[in-house]
Amino acid sequence: MTTSEAIPAETALDDIRAMLLELLDEYGLEDGTEITRDTAFHEDLGLESIDLVALGSRLAERYGEHVNLAAFLAEMELDDVIGLRIGSLVDFVVHSTGRFRNRES
Amino acid sequence: MTRADVSGTAGQRGREARAGGEQDVLLLAGRSAAELAGRLEGHRSGTPDVGAHHQEPGPRVALIGPTRERCELAARIVRKEAPWRGRKDIWFSPEPLLSAGGGIAFVFPGLEAEFSPSVTDVAGWLGTSVGDLDTHTLGRYAASVFTVNELMYRALRTLGLRPDALAGHSVGEWSAMRAAGILPERDFVRMIERADLDALRVPGLEFAVLGCSAERAASAVRGRGGIVVSHENSPNQTVVCGPGEAVSTLVDELRANGVISHVLPFQSGFHTPMFEDYLGPFRAEGVPSLPMHPATIPVWSATTATRFPDDPGRIRDLSVRHMIEPVRFGALIRQLYDSGVRMFVQAGCGQLGSLVDDTLRQSEHLTITANSPHRSGTGQLRRVAAAAWVEGGNPDFSVLDPDTAAPAAGAAVSPPTNRAELAQATRLRELGARFPAAAEFGMLLEESAASVAEVIEAADAGGRGRRARPPRVHAAGRRRTAGPHPAPGALRHTLPVDVESMPHLLDHCMAAQRAGWPDHSDRRPVMPATGMIAHLAGAARAAAPGRVVTEVSDVRLRRWLVAAPGQQVPVEVEPLDRHRVSARLGGFADAVITLGDRYPDDAPEPWPPARYERVPELSARRLYDEGWMFHGPAFQGITRSTAISPESFRAEITVPSAPGALLDNVGQMIGQWLVENHPRRCIAFPARIERIRFHAPEPPTGQTVGGAVRVTSLSDEHVVVDGQVTVNGSVGVSVTGWQDYRVDGDERACAVHRLPGTNTIAREQPGGWWLLAEPWNGLASREFFVPKYLGASERAEYEACDPPERRRWLLARVVVKDAVRGLLWRRGHGAVYPAELHVSCDRSGRYRVGGVYGLRVGDLPVAVDQCDGLSVAWVPGHAHAQPDVAIGEVSSTALETANDVAPAEERLLDRLRHMTGDALPVAMARLAVARMVVRRARPGEVGIEAEAIAAGGESHGEIAIDVASATRSRRVRVAVVPEPGGTREYAVARTDGAADNEL
What we know:
heterodimer; A: mainly alpha; Non-ribosomal Peptide Synthetase Peptidyl Carrier Protein, Chain A; 57% helix; B: alpha+beta; Malonyl-Coenzyme A Acyl Carrier Protein, domain 2; Alpha-Beta Plaits; Thiol Ester Dehydrase, Chain A; 6 domains; eleven-stranded antiparallel beta sheet; six-stranded antiparallel beta sheet; 28 helices; 36 strands; 32% helix; globular
């Protein structure tokens, strides 16, 4: 850990976008699905709750176990989980990496 | 699962509202991906293409809303030559899965966290309604899920998708059982209606969905009292169940460890051992309480991850296990895949597709849901059809005509597909009028392969592929919600079945009687199987006015429908989808009936003559005159027996008058084929018929048509044939899988069936006594002979017997009646039918015989005895006799006790053996049966066993023995006979009741 700062939001979005495209099996496809902060996980990407499991383990692999998607989702109501947008995931990654790094430094 | 398309941030609901494009489907098949991509790139924007009937193998692509941009996107996807299944509403399959032999499974969801069906338009499209889909209590929630599942099943079948397997997740399995016909619809619906849906008694246990494997979940719950794994959903999803507090602690801990978990919003305790305490009411009123039938489509169990058993008892057991053992959905999906299933359709709404995908991550397959909350119901069905077509399926896009599908999402109705089709067809017709070659070309279009379609397509980018159907013009004002044809309705009525209203049934009697016999019930007139089919078809027609029956399938002939005494039979028709109904004639017969606006012109070619044909032995005249067929004039249709071979039979049938008589004669042809090829078991009657297709209206009474049957399978129990009826050289009716049950019985049984007045099943033995070996094994065969031997009052007695007693009871009557009839014939009497004799048995076991309806037999004492499957009767023929008869097995095990024989006994046996030369076991058996009759003649008298015996000579193979006590002796005749058709020997002793001799 060489930096004491949280992952920048753009980096987090890029990372998450790459992970999602991989999940969607569209990685590397030119003009693949456009993914922005406003994109909805379920409704727009057609991903289901079980895909969150795969995304959760990719996030943990990339950033460490402290980026715990399970804990993040636990605070949400079921309807919120269903309506989850990518922007919330980005904020969650920024927040939890920052929290960890701050504690480290 | 369909992954929803997205362009930018527009959701599907937004896109649905756009005019036109949503309703258009572009379908392309080609020889290579490159060719497909080229055609996509050249595709003229906005022109629909419904070349849905390419039959060639090769890659296929489909896209919804084929704008120029989207076609270009699809082209890029296709050029990568990797499968693409559903995202962006594009499907591409380089090697279509179904063309390669893959199967289709419909998977029914159970209860999930979310339930947002989009079905109002589908219900309207199918001409039904779904009511309010309430989810407030567990019971109502389940009922709503079943309703949606059932609706989606009908929708998928209407689209022309034929599942090779059905399965369900959790209680969705009941929907699968229902769809496969295991649970009759009526009973299932009644069960749901009857249940107090707000007060279902279930354990108040929580479910938690865990984002981890079953192994990890199992180790997490180990040592936590009361929590068990209830659903092994997929590699990354497992459900556990237990008391609320324990479950919530577990969920917290797992979340802390990064396992995504949540508690489900309903409680039930299903699929856990905790449900065992609640099984009582479930068994009494739930699924196990319902009548069950073998599945018409294979159903797979998530409890065992294998196919359901066929036996209703075992299905019932499984339905109980289902509630107390975990759902092993992942294992089930894996097994389905291994059995060849490649396309998984979620027949309902929910997330099952994601579980299938998670399970089959590395295995090529297609999943798609029949219903999605993100678009209209018919819009999603269009995608299912597109996806199935791309994999080589043959869905019927025409039923989704935008003209009639109710646009729930408010899309502007614009039927370019239809319009284009219409324009194309109209143009061809116009051209055809001027240039006959164009008409021919049109026909070619309708029949030929993809290559022709491609030529047309190249010539006219807006061209359609092969469309077999002429365009339909919908009359203005036609009911829009009912679909292209009015859906058949439900229908119930009662059919009186009796010989007064159906006198032709007196020509279809199972038991011949003396001419003028007054009791019709003794003749056992029954409605022939084909008559029942005619009534089922008639009821289906009545439920769908204006339409014709094009197919009758899944015919089950369950019981004889007896017409005397008459009965009122309920006839019920329930619609299955827009073309099919299920029809039921009481508990006697049922079938699925397909209705059409006209007869399809897909008749097969008439079969050529078979190899090894010869002239049949029985002419048509002999067939009926000699009683080979029991049918009377109203059913006698075979007018020429043309040619027979070891596997086939051809004949001419002149259509007789009775309802169903044409097909009945096809059944008679099976009979003649058996008589000539397999006379040992030549009686057969229909048990089930897979499919009867009607290609033309039924020929009228009096017309002569061709009949042909080909035997496809033959065993001791069954004969299965395919059949054709040709009318003026074309096939008018084709039958596949007509299965007859073959009645057990030797030639003697066959002879009694044909001519009961002059034949017997029992055999007369030298010396004049009668021996009967039971000629049938099964209950069905036995009961087939009951009406031949028993008159009305005796049948009532038979029915009153305890079922285990009936067999011996019947055999005693058969052997007595045969013995008495033999005696009467010897005295010069003409034909005597078994029902003309009445046999009674008093409390002391003494049998008496009397005549019925005019037959006089005088006072004829008879004696009967039975041992194992053998029955013996002795009728001395004079009124004052007190005959007795006894039968016993010659048993080698008797030797084992021979050592204990008293010295006096040993002397008797020695003496007997000296007289007869018998082996020891034979001598012991002779002595035993001889004593039996003597003892019965002098009940209560002691000391007759160990006296003296004397040989009285031999006649007819019988040894006469005088069994003597100190004061008297009695003469007994003892024969030893081999068991007919068996390996054992029996000793039979008889006495004609002449008085004892004083010594």
